[in-house]
Amino acid sequence: MRCEDAVDALRAGLPVILATDTVYGLCASAETAGPTERLYTLKGREADKPSALLAADVETLFACVPELNAAMGAIVRALLPGPYTLILPNPARRYGWLTGGTPEAIGVRVPVLPEASRRVLAPAGAVVSTSANLAGGPDPRSVGEIALELRERVAAIVDAGPLPGTPSTVLDLTGAEPRVLREGAVPAAEALARAADALR
Prior knowledge:
Layout: H1 3-11, E1 16-19, E2 24-29, H2 33-43, E3 52-54, H3 58-64, H4 67-79, E4 84-89, E5 105-109, H5 115-124, E6 127-131, H6 148-151, E7 156-157, E8 169-172, E9 179-182, H7 188-199
């Protein structure tokens, strides 16, 4: 699959599978609600569950959610790019179609992308992203581990070979103190220490 085909698919509002720095992700355009709704239907994901806004670089993320640069810019730049999903305040309630039941917060990802995925995301802009599995299924570290039902129904697959297979560490920064909601590629203690350093 050519990277250009994946870019065209995202721009057309169709779901694609991309490699990240952790596991394979099921992605769609984040610009409007329709592609996210199709992604949720394909995955069997409940509508009230949030997904992450994934960008190729921090500057693209800040362009999508400008408030983050002022309020959380230092910690975002300290931790990203990297294997984190950061839950951040979303005072303008942007991208409500991917924030699930918590529109006042937004999950963001800026992975260290394989080159093929970077060639897709850089021109396509930010996307909604969740693990490329059926709801409740295992996180895929290779294209072969992705359910055939998903592989047959997406518009493009960008195969970057085997990935580490451990999902991102989810760090909630919306409260008075950082909290680890899911320990993943980064151990909880390390994630909390790095967050504390960035907030000083």
